């Protein structure tokens, strides 16, 4: 018999999935309102499906395009559709007011500017990465935190800024720099809002519009499926992930291996953004 919800986890080594049994009620989001910003496609859409499968009572879908949101809504029970842009204060505020109290907020929207060396970049296009990834995070936080339920969860999608040397990423200065700044904003949100669980997740190598804009070639890289980050985010919203508050983690981690490192993660700067290694 199929479980009432499924939340697969995956390992970096083989990317295989293990179904979670009904004996794991802590992974259920029954009676919760889950807000997905960027739900019109890619990881955001799959995340909406994952939270719906985990029993969410209400899944609020936000994106800039009505047609793509409606396509997601067709596959999500108890969904509401809200046209909103991460860079537009009014549309985010209107959506927050319409949704009301929420328990989980996932910010999956992001923008990868056109790739070019720093000195050859178009300033407006280069800065668009910061407007969406950094300013957008600020605006979403200002719009939604006032309506957060007690002990609500905010999860953001970010990109690793240290795993790959900069020399391997020519042309991606706007995207990588803005994502580094974004990760730090989330750390401040966690520090300044002790009643909320705030963390960020690197989704792995997933073929999305941003991946294609970055110049990535899927058949030359160790790609992940879109279900990996989507279902990992469901786990991140569970009590099991409480030790990751204020941290950035990766969807490729096996959750049991992560939990085995609770002490290391909680007692230092591991999984935080910034310069490390002072003498």
Round the Cα radius of gyration to an integer and report it.
Answer: 18 Å
What proportion of the residues is helical, as a percent range? 25-40%
Largest sheet strand order: 3-2-1-4-5-6-7
Helix tally?
9
Strand content: 5-15%
What is the top-level CATH class? Alpha Beta
* Number of E-type strands: 7
List low-pLDDT spans.
Answer: 1-23
CATH architecture: 3-Layer(aba) Sandwich
* Mean pLDDT across residues: 85
Counted up, domains total 1
Pick out its properties.
15% strand, 7 strands, 7-stranded parallel β-sheet, NAD(P)-bd_dom_sf, 279 residues, disordered N terminus, single chain, alpha/beta, Rossmann fold
Describe, in short, the structure shown:
The protein has 279 residues and is an alpha/beta fold. It has helices at 42-53, 66-73, 89-99, 123-144, 173-192, 209-213, 227-236, 255-259, 262-266, and strands at 33-37, 58-63, 79-83, 102-107, 148-157, 197-202, 248-250. 42% of the residues are buried.
Descriptive overview:
The protein has 279 residues and is α/β, with parallel strands linked by helices. The protein has a single domain, classed as 3-Layer(aba) Sandwich (Rossmann fold), CATH 3.40.50. Helix content is 35%, strand content 15%. A seven-stranded parallel sheet has the order 3-2-1-4-5-6-7, with helices on both faces. Strand 5, helix 5 and strand 6 form a beta-alpha-beta unit. Helix 4 runs parallel beside helix 5. The protein is globular and about 50 Å long. The N terminus is likely disordered.
């Amino acid at each position: 018999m199929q479980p009432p919800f499924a939340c697969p986890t995956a390992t970096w080594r083989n990317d295989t999935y293990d179904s979670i049994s009904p004996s794991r009620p802590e992974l259920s989001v029954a009676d919760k309102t889950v807000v997905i910003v960027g739900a019109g496609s890619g990881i955001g859409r799959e995340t909406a499906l994952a939270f719906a499968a985990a029993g969410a009572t209400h899944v609020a879908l936000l994106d800039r395009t009505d047609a793509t949101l409606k396509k997601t809504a067709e596959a999500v029970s108890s969904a509401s559709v809200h046209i909103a842009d991460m860079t537009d204060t009014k549309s985010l505020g209107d959506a927050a007011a319409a949704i009301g109290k929420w328990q989980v907020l996932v910010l999956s929207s992001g923008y990868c500017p056109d790739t070019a060396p720093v000195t050859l970049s178009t300033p407006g296009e280069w800065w668009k990465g910061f407007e969406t990834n950094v300013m957008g995070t600020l605006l979403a936080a200002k719009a939604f935190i006032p309506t957060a339920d007690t002990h609500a969860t905010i999860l953001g999608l970010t990109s690793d800024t240290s795993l790959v040397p900069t020399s391997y990423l020519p042309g991606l200065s706007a995207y990588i720099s803005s994502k580094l700044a974004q990760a730090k904003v989330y750390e401040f949100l966690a520090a300044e809002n002790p009643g909320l669980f705030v963390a960020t997740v690197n989704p792995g190598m997933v073929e999305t519009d941003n991946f294609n804009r970055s110049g990535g070639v899927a058949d030359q890289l160790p790609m992940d499926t879109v279900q990996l980050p989507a279902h990992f985010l469901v786990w991140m919203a569970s009590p099991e992930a409480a030790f990751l508050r204020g941290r950035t983690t990766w969807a490729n981690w096996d959750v049991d291996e992560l939990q085995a490192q609770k002490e290391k993660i909680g007692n230092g700067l591991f999984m935080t953004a910034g310069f490390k290694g002072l003498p």
